[in-house]
Amino acid sequence: MLLSKEMRSRLDRLALSPRGRVQALWSGGHASVRKGESLDFADYRPYVPGDDFRKIDHNLWARLGQVLIRQYEAEEELPLRLAIDSSASMSLHQKHGTALRLAAMIAYLTLSGGDRVQPVSTPGPAGRVVAIGPAGRHVSAWPVIERWLEGLEAVGRAPLSPAIRSLIGGSPTRGPVVLISDLFDDEWERALDSLFVGAGGLVLHVLAREELSPGFAGDLRLRDIEMGSVVDISTSQQVLSTYRTSLDQFVTNAANRARRAGLDYLLVEAGADAAEKSLRALLSAGVVR
Amino acid sequence: MNFLVPAALGVAALAGPLLILYMLRSRRRQLDVTSTRLWEASEVQVTSAVPWSRLRWTALLVLQLLAIALFAFVLARPFFSQQTVLGPHSVFLIDTSGSMAEGDRLDRAKAEAVALATDLSEGNLISVIDAGPHPRVLLGHAREQDDVIAAIGSLRAGGGEADLSEAIRLGRGLATPDRPTNVIVFSDGGEAPIPEEPVAGATHIAFHDIVDDVALETLTIDATGGVTRGLVSVANHSGGETSVELAVSVDGIPSALLELDLGASQHAVETFELDAAAGSEVMVERVGEPDGNPLDDRAWTVIDQNEARSVGVLGEGSPYLAALVAATQGFELDVDAGDILVVDRGPLPPIDRPAWLIRPDSTPEGLELTGLVENMPATFQAPGEPVLDNVDLSNLVVAEAQNVAPRGWSPIVRAGDVPLILLGSIDGHRVVYFTFDLTHSNLPVQVSFPILGAALLHWLDGEAPGTVASGPAGAPIVISAPDGSEPVVTMPDGSSRTLTSDTASFADTSQPGVYRVTYANDDGTVTSGPIAVRSFVATEAGAPVRNIATSTGDPDSDETGVVVREWGPWVLAALLAMLALEWWIGHQRPWLGRAA
Fold first, then answer.
1. Are B35 and A182 an interchain contact pair (Cβ–Cβ within 8 Å)?
2. Preferred mutation among B21, B22, B29, B33 to probe A, highest tally of A CBs within 10 A
3. ipTM value greater than 0.90
4. Global pTM?
């Protein structure tokens, strides 16, 4: 069970609050890029034959001599796409387990708000870029999505950028994207850039304590569990200092890239209580209300 | 700096393998990580055609090299040499005469000796001699510092005069054939000259502090004329005038208080009347602030019996003998019988009382006559022998003497190997034996003759119950216990010493005071023996100090005068500290382990 009963009941009282406008197939509670029939006034436009006479603003016609039609905001559902990094680099130090709990938390939060969630995982089976999970727009879909999430394993190599492009490209809807990954990918910058769809989103950057503060000693040959590459190091004060500098740059760049793409960014330390901590951070950042 | 095991420095060659280990490329432990991307900037380029790399100096490497160097240093046992008076065998000759009680001379001498004893190196020896009136070996050829220090600590000053000549001879007797022996004399020098100065192979460590002192030199009792008077002689050994208060007590009961003023370096005799009977113990004590020498602040005496002792003469007799007895106070001549028997030539009678045998026709038990010798000058008189006090027999010449081989007799005057005067005992009675006829020697015309004769008569009379024998501190007490009884000596401090029945003398009399001898018989009865009064030797008070001339023994010997002090413990401590630091850096602070 990825989410405890207490966690689910807490999430029932919360909802995602994306920054941008969405474009969905179904009406809902979130501001759409389209004009609609809500009570919120949006704009005027000139009358064209065929428009509903009831929307003509007679006061403006009398005052300006122009026939203008009143337009109102449309409200649609939130089509959230959830991308989970299940590459081999996520297999160590509880990172994948943490990523799945975070995904479960976001998915349940979306479903409990009556919005649509579409989870995908990369890499996919049989050499495919992604594995597409079951979509849902109501909390009744949660058990199916939870089972699918529980069945994911962190294996293989996953180029993030193609996976993001396949997730966003060709979709008729526009909604926020949540990416849960350690971003240990050669093209992680392009992957974040491609997340810019104008509907906001969130990057949950999952790193383990062993990566944030490595306790190595001695002469080591480090083998990349995903790429297979090796690096020989001799631990010393200077080596560890260099690593920390690289790590700081990596995290800072990731946060900047995410914000530039209109996404919120949260660094998550892998662990059993990571979902709880992340929820608190998202609440304080206003991403979840 | 030198090394006891210089070959051990070869251990430092272990630094070579250590450096090689540091230069060899290590076999790296493989570790799976999620990504190597962040480590690429820290990568060590290992692609090389050779299995070693340039040596990188790190804190650990420096510490390990230092540890190896210190380890080799410890094994090599570094030492430095220091000049010392100690040699392979050193004889500590510590003066315990009365003058050493002045100030803290003896304490400083003991401290100096202990300080030297702590320098005792492995394999070297130390002997300790108590150089009192009767020098004795306290400790011989000791290797352990603790034994030497304990022996030195047991020394205490007495009231007698040190016999440094005998002590040096005793020290020489301890010489070991396999190593040089040097004698270290801890002394203020004393007044008596040493015949063989400069003393070869010796070192004198002098203690010259001078302190103000008032000394009670003599105490005598004159009981003639129906009135008992005491005479006490007091000397002021300080540079200024002083007032002296003397408390007189009889058998422990205060009797009189005397006051007298003394100028600088002045002697005075004070007389006082006493109400005391024969056998009473009289003590005069200086009261007031303690002075430089506490041993000379008291004087004792015991009032002797006034009955004259009779001396019977058998044999040919001579006018010299008659004059001698008549001139000796407390003795009178009795031709028929006597408490003391004098046999002047003629047949040897049975010995049933103290006897003075002058060349009898036959020799008593223990003296084997081997012949006669002629024209023999005296060449030796026993030093420290009480009966020879103030007796100079250096001009004695004997025309003819018996040559006897003594067994159990003590020759106190000899001419070469021929005994001239012997002391001994027959059937529990004291006996003096002259191997020469008085009339065939120049002894009767010697100045010392009446002194020697009186001393011999007093010695012979010494076995009578209640007899009081006075002498300087350190002079032995002659004991002749009746058959089947054990002598018990009551010391001045009240303690008692039980001696064996065959003990002939008791020499532990260095403390001034009254020594009482009793005999404990088998049937449980106790009979009185002689009483001995031992006085502080007056010449020891305020005696001038002097340096004893010495000369080093073998100037070519390089074994003496050097003490070896090892650095080992300090280097070992540094090594342990270094290893602890190395462990701390290696295990607790890995970032200091290796420099990039």
1. yes
2. B33
3. no
4. 0.50
- DSSP H/E element including B287: strand B281-287
pLDDT for B426-456, tens place per residue? 887 889 999 999 999 999 999 889 989 988 9
Q: Among A26-40, A98-112, B74-88, B508-522, which is the least confidently predicted range? A: A26-40
How high is the pLDDT of residue B465? 64
From CA A47, how far away is CA A70, in angstroms rounded? 9
Write the DSSP assignment of B560-572 as a string of letters.
SSEEEEE-HHHHH
The answer to whether the CB atoms of B593 and A226 lie below 8 A apart is: no
Name which of A88-97, A227-236, A264-273, B461-470 the model is least confident about: B461-470
CA distances from B367 to B359, B375, B403, B424, B482 (A): 12, 21, 9, 10, 22
**Residue B556 confidence (pLDDT):** 53
Nearest by CB: B33 against A225, A235, A239: A225
Kindly list the structural domains of chain B, giving each domain's residue range(s) and its CATH number in brackets, ordered by start: 2-28+48-81+567-592 (no CATH), 85-210+543-560 (3.40.50.410), 214-302 (2.60.40.10), 309-463 (3.40.50.880), 468-540 (2.60.40)
Mean pLDDT of A53-82: 80
B95 to each of B150, B205, B539, how far by Cα in Å? 17, 11, 15
Q: Do A237 and B591 touch (CB under 8 A)?
A: yes
| Residue B369: strand, helix, or coil | strand
Phi/psi region, residue B474 (left: phi>0; alpha: psi -120 to 50; beta: rest), is left
Candidates A184, A230, A237; nearest CB to B34: A184
Beta strands in chain A (DSSP E): 27-46, 68-76, 79-85, 116-122, 131-132, 177-181, 201-207, 219-224, 230-234, 264-269
d(CA B33, nearest CA chain A) in Å: 5
**Per-residue model confidence as pLDDT tens digits over A142-175:** 999 999 999 999 888 878 888 888 777 666 666 7
- Residue (of B393, B398, B387, B405) closest to B436 by Cα position: B398
Domains plus CATH for chain A? 5-11+78-285 (3.40.50.410), 27-76 (no CATH)
CB–CB contact B39 A233 (8 Å): yes
Q: Do the Cβ atoms of B42 and A208 come within 8 Å?
A: no
Instruction: Give me the residue from B26, B32, B41 closest to A223, CB to CB.
Output: B32
pLDDT at A38: 62
